[in-house]
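Re: the request from the purification team.
They wanted to know what the chain is likely to look like in 3D before they choose a buffer screen. I agreed to run a prediction and write the result into the notebook, where they can find it.
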Amino acid sequence: MQKAHYAKSQAEKYGLQADVEGAHFNEFVIKLQEPVKEANKRLLEKGIIGGYDLGLDYPELQQHMLVAVTELRTKEEIDTFIKELGDRHE
């Protein structure tokens, strides 16, 4: 749970909006400035597995990515993931 909180705070530092407030365990939602499909494709090209495209199931959540972070992820991996999304956001 600590790693998910860390990832969420890093996302907010990069200007990525943690769009759904409230309690979370190891998942949270961020709103992107690009389609999630494009972000995931770009991430995968760098060997990073992205998040789930909530717009597939909820049309009102287009460009919203569900991110799951477990304790197995290192801070370096989290930072790289968030930086890739954040650099695109600016």
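For the purification team: The chain has three helices and four strands.
Please add any questions underneath this entry.
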